[in-house]
Amino acid sequence: MMVFVREHCAFSKAVLNQIDTLKIDVEKKFIEDPKVERELMARGGRIQVPFLVDEENDVELYDSDLILHYLDEHYGQATSR
């Protein structure tokens, strides 16, 4: 799983905090790097963060509220693994 984020972005920070809280192993990609920004554009079609990619479940999400709900629903402590 990977998440595209921007430093100093409140929406990105909320998602990163949830990832840390749930102890999810995620590749964090910061779009301040032009190469990562191009990768985000090629993958998702727009420069908007956060953007979550969960290839295992074939999920790609842009909206931070949707991402937070998805992470809690699929990776939360109550979820059996």
Task: Supply database-style keywords.
single chain, 81 residues, alpha+beta, four-stranded mixed sheet, 44% helix
Molecular structure report:
The protein has 81 residues and is of the alpha+beta class. It is 44% helix and 19% strand. It has three helices and four strands, in the order E-H-E-H-E-E-H. Strands 2-1-3-4 form a four-stranded mixed sheet, sandwiched between helices. A hairpin with a 4-residue loop joins strand 3 (51-54) and strand 4 (59-61). The radius of gyration is 12 Å and the shape is globular. The mean pLDDT is 94.
Secondary structure topology:
Elements (H helix, E strand, L loop, with lengths): L1 E4 L4 H13 L4 E4 L3 H11 L6 E4 L4 E3 L2 H12 L6
Parallel strand pairs: 1-2
Antiparallel strand pairs: 1-3, 3-4
Helix pairs in contact: 1-3
Number of helices: 3
Indicate the structural class.
Answer: alpha+beta
Q: What Rg do the Cα atoms give?
A: 12 Å
Q: Tell me, what's the shape?
A: globular
Biggest sheet statistics: 4 strands, mixed
The percentage of residues in β strands lies in 15-25%
Report the oligomer: single chain
Mean pLDDT: 94
End-to-end distance:
16 Å
Uncertain segments are none
The strand line-up of the biggest sheet is 2-1-3-4
Number of strands: 4
Helix content: 40-55%
Helix-strand sequence? EHEHEEH
Summed up:
The chain is α+β, with helices and mostly antiparallel strands. Helices cover 44% and strands 19% of the residues.
